[in-house]
Amino acid sequence: MIAIISAMQEEIQALLNKLQNVSTIEKGMRTYYVGTLFNKKVVLVFSRWGKVAAAATTTQLINDFDLDEIIFTGVAGGIHPNLNIGDIVIGKDLFQHDLNASPFYKRFEIPIIKKLFLETKNPDSLIAATTIFLQNYHCYVKLNDAQIFDITKPKLVFGDIASGDQFISSLKKIAKLNKQIPSAICVEMEGAAVAQICYEYEMPFSIIRIISDKANDNATIDFSKFSNTIASNYALGILENYFA
Ligand code: ADE
After folding, report:
1. The Nucleoside phosphorylase domain covers which part of the protein (predicted)?
2. Which of 44, 46, 63, 85 has its CA 20 to 30 A from that of 10?
3. Ligand 1 atom closest to Cα of 214?
4. Angle, nearest 10°, between helix axes 191-201 and 51-64?
C-alpha cells in the first residue's frame, strides 16, 4: 500500500475525488481515506500544517498501515530565482531550516541522527512520471487557471528543500535562507519532518512540491489562489503516471 500525504485538503482533493472503494479511519483528529487510486491500494490523509503535524501523521501511517512507501505532495514557495509558479520540485535533500540546537549540535544538525539533512532515495521513477506529466500538463490543468499564474512551460527540478514552522513571505528571509542553506531551492513546512520519521523507520519516501508562490510579499495571495485551484490537479497527473 502507498500512503499519500498533503498538508491541506485542497492539495489532495483531486485525488480524493478519484479514489474508489473508499473506507475511512478516524485517528488523532485526522481522517485516513483508504481505497484504490489508478488500480493501486492507497491511503490518503491530510496531515495539517507544520512539522509536528506531519511527523505525527507519518508515524501513525507507518504503524497502522502496511506501507511500501510514502509520498508527500503539496505546494512550496520558490526561493531560487529560476523557479516560477507552476514549476515542480522533487525533493533531494531535506533540511529543517528552523532547527538550531547549537552550541550542543551544529546548526541544522538533527540530534542523535547526526545529519544536517536527510536525502530521498531512488527518485528515478517519480522523475520519469513527472516528466511525462509535464508533457501532458494541459490535460490536467485548465488553460484559464494556468493563465492566472502566467504558467506557460512548467519545469521539473530535482533539488533541495528547506522545511520549517514558518510561512515565508519576505525577501529578507529568503536572502538569509539562501546564505544559510545555499542548495535549498524552495521552502515549505512539512517535508523534512516526514523525511526524519521515514529515515527512523526505514520507510522509502518522496516529496513532491509544486511552486505556488515565490515566498515574497505576494506569497500569501499566490499561495491561497494556487492551492485552491491548481495544486491537486498536479498531484493527480503526476501520480497517474507514477502508478501506471
Ligand atoms: N508553502 C507554500 N508556500 C510557502 C511559503 N512561502 N513558506 C512556507 N511554506 C510554503
Report:
1. 2-242
2. 63
3. 6
4. 30
* Residue 7 beta carbon below 6 angstroms from any ligand 1 atom: no
The minimum-distance atom of ligand 1 relative to the CA of 77 is 3
Residues 6+ apart with CB under 8 A from 179: none
Question: Annotated catalytic residue: which of 10, 87, 190, 213?
Answer: 213
**Which value, in Å, is the radius of gyration of the alpha carbons in the chain?**
17
Alpha-carbon span 207 to 117, nearest angstrom:
14
Answer whether 109 contacts ligand 1 (Cβ < 6 A). Answer: no
Domains of the chain: 73-243 (3.40.50.1580)
Cis peptide before 103 (omega within 30 of 0): yes
Q: Model ipTM?
A: 0.99
Say if CB 208 and CB 193 are below 8 A apart.
no
Q: Is 54 in the pocket of ligand 1 (CB under 6 A)?
A: no
Confirm or reject: Cβ of 83 under 6 Å from ligand 1. no
Q: What are 170-197's pLDDT values in tens digits?
A: 999 999 999 999 999 999 999 999 999 9
> Pick the catalytic residue: 10, 11, 87, 160?
11
Closest atom of ligand 1 relative to the 164 alpha carbon? 8
pLDDT in tens, 21-55: 999 999 999 999 999 999 999 999 999 999 999 99
